[in-house]
Amino acid sequence: MITLNLIRQAAEVLHGVVRQTDMIQSRGLATGTELLLKTENLQVTGSFKVRGAYFRMSTMTEEERRRGVVACSAGNHAQGVALSAQQSGTPATIFIPSVAPIYKIEATKSMGADIRIVDGVYDDAYTAARAFEAETGAVFIHPFDDPRVIAGQGTIGLEILEQAAGLDAVILPIGGGGLIAGVAFAIKSLNPSCKVYGVQAAGAAGMHDSFAAKEYLTSKRVSTFADGIAVKAPGTLTYDLCSQYVDDIVTVTDDEIATSILALMEQEKLVAEGAGAVAVAAAMFGKLPIEGKRVCAVVSGGNIDVNILARVISRGQLATGRIAELTLELLDKPGQLFEVSAIIAKMGANVTKVVHNHGGENTDITGCYLHLTLETRNKEHIEQVVAQLRAEGYKVTQ
């Protein structure tokens, strides 16, 4: 059902509609690897999803357009469908799970789509959208398990091979599997020796588990802040394509994803959402055999809510030792805070928050707890600060 000609047809249709996003050289995100970044976070609508949605809708008949379209999405496919519907004058109803960021919901509304919020995750929105399809006759635009959607996403594979010669591997995020299915087919059809690796959030690992078990499996629940890949069940078509064309699938934790978002911002000046950063996270944390290789990681989207971004930055700082939280047990007497602050300053760390509490029933009556938040360089630096405090007679309890 997927052919190289279909992907090339999609590339022709998308020409002038979507951007051929830049391929940039990483500045050391993955030590020992020549890492290139395919910046789909800079795509129209901020995600690769517009490619598949637009190509799928370009094949609709006039009668189908009159019936309108229905879709389900955590936000990125929703924006792709909404934009495509707006440009073609097609009515669009989109079911979005309540976990989707407000930014994605509002961006989709701004394109004229009728938005229906569904309590739960993507799979709950999918059930509601299918019921609407049966009730109204609207054409369902699947976010990943459709040959033309997959072909649209596969155009990224054509661009990668055109932009970066001599690649040893390509790393892609996986939710339902539409992106990796299309790109893997394109890559393996044109350069069979190039490895294709998939990455999922550890809390939403349906395709990973299916791939490992060599049978189609679904997850009972998902738990990850990477809403764009928070999918319980991979596609059946995408599972078949992954089984044939993908070399391996790994998982990364939410802390690893948060760290990669922070690194992309600081080192590459790129904003990525959780789903968009998982491929980079796999490279950064040594999840794949890519040392000494020339590798492309697809940064698939940049639509992250600013409130979530603030939390992710804090989480990434904690995970990498850029922020430390310490608790000291002290005698409650004048000058203690000054002395502790002087030691910390001498060690090159910076106190950003102080909370003073009187001691509890297990401490000296004249005792107190000092809770400190510090800016530090890394985990080794935290250990040095704690060691110095202890060397100078202070009891660090946390």
Give an account of the 3D structure.
Strands 1-2-10-7-8-9 form a 6-stranded mixed sheet, sandwiched between helices. A 4-stranded parallel sheet has the order 5-4-3-6, sandwiched between helices. Strands 12-13-11-14 form a 4-stranded antiparallel sheet. The chain contains 15 helices and 14 strands. The chain has helices at residues 4-14, 49-58, 62-67, 76-88, 102-109, 122-136, 147-163, 178-190, 206-213, 236-245, 254-268, 274-284, 306-320, 336-346, 379-391; strands spanning 23-25, 34-39, 69-72, 92-97, 114-118, 139-140, 169-173, 195-201, 248-252, 294-299, 323-331, 350-358, 367-375, 395-396. α1 (4-14) packs across α7, α7 crosses α8 and α11 crosses α12. It has 398 residues and is an alpha/beta fold.
Distance between the termini: 58 Å
Classify the beta-strand content into a percent band. 15-25%
Low-confidence stretches: none
Kindly name the structural category.
alpha/beta
Strand order of the largest sheet: 1-2-10-7-8-9
User: What's the number of extended β-strand segments?
Assistant: 14
Q: Tell me the number of helical segments per DSSP (H or I, 4 or more residues long).
A: 15
Whole-number tally of structural domains: 3
Q: Looking at the structure, what is the overall shape?
A: elongated
The helix content, as a percent range, equals 40-55%
User: So what's the CATH class of the largest domain?
Assistant: Alpha Beta
CATH fold call of the largest domain: Rossmann fold
Query: Would you list the SSEs in sequence order as H and E?
Result: HEEHHEHEHEHEHEHEHHEHHEHEHEEHE
**Rg over C-alpha atoms, rounded to the nearest angstrom:** 24 Å
